[in-house]
């Protein structure tokens, strides 16, 4: 399972997602351009001292990710505007969860590169969730749905 952040903009959000990835053994892939430098102190602070445990990859564009790391992954685009509700979507162990930039989300030309699209159902006046919150919801839904939370060696079972 991968988390892929497409053009992330806010360092603390990416740092929080990195911590999530460290906690779950999930690879984190960042697609440039980034709205920050990897040396950013807010990025590092949000990831705390878990950075050595993050399998982090940075790609110049989505095509580079898809050609190399994403070849054997099923790209699942997340959008607040389209897609199947995440709790009704059938995830697979080889999914790459793609989330877009905080201020604008995934562009339509990226969303529709894949037939696999999910959304987190929201009610009320809120249009979207924080990127790291959305990543956590989707990742744990995917891990639970694929049985990966039930694995004997899953550290979060103890």
Description:
- This protein has 158 residues and is α/β, with parallel strands linked by helices.
- It has a single domain, classed as SPOUT methyltransferase, trefoil knot domain (Alpha/beta knot, 3-Layer(aba) Sandwich), CATH 3.40.1280.
- 28% of the residues lie in helices and 18% in strands.
- It has a seven-stranded parallel sheet with strand order 3-2-1-6-4-7-5.
- Helix 1 packs parallel to helix 5.
- The model has no long low-confidence stretch (mean pLDDT 88).
N-C termini distance: 21 Å
Strands, count: 7
**Annotated CATH architecture:** 3-Layer(aba) Sandwich
Structural class: alpha/beta
- Kindly provide the name of the CATH class: Alpha Beta
Task: Give a short synopsis of this structure.
This protein has 158 residues and is α/β, with parallel strands linked by helices.
State the main characteristics.
158 residues; Alpha/beta knot; seven-stranded parallel beta sheet
Topology diagram in text:
Layout: E1 2-6, H1 11-24, E2 27-31, H2 41-46, E3 56-59, H3 62-67, E4 74-78, E5 84-85, E6 95-99, H4 108-111, E7 117-119, H5 131-145
Parallel strand pairs: 1-2, 1-6, 2-3, 4-6, 4-7, 5-7
């Amino acid at each position: 399972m991968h988390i892929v952040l497409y053009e992330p903009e806010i360092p603390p959000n990416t740092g929080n997602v990195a911590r999530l990835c460290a906690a779950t053994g999930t690879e984190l892939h960042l697609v440039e351009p980034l709205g920050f430098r990897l040396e950013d102190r807010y990025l590092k602070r949000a990831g705390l001292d878990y950075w050595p445990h993050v399998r982090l990859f940075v790609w110049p564009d989505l095509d580079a990710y898809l050609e190399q790391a994403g070849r054997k992954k099923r790209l699942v685009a997340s959008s607040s505007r389209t897609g199947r509700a995440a709790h009704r979507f059938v995830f697979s162990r080889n999914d790459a969860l793609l989330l877009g930039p905080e201020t604008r989300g995934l562009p339509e030309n990226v969303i529709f590169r894949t037939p696999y699209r999910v959304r987190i159902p929201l009610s009320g006046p809120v249009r979207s969730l924080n990127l790291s919150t959305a990543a956590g919801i989707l990742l744990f839904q995917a891990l639970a749905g694929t049985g990966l939370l039930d694995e004997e060696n899953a550290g979060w079972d103890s």
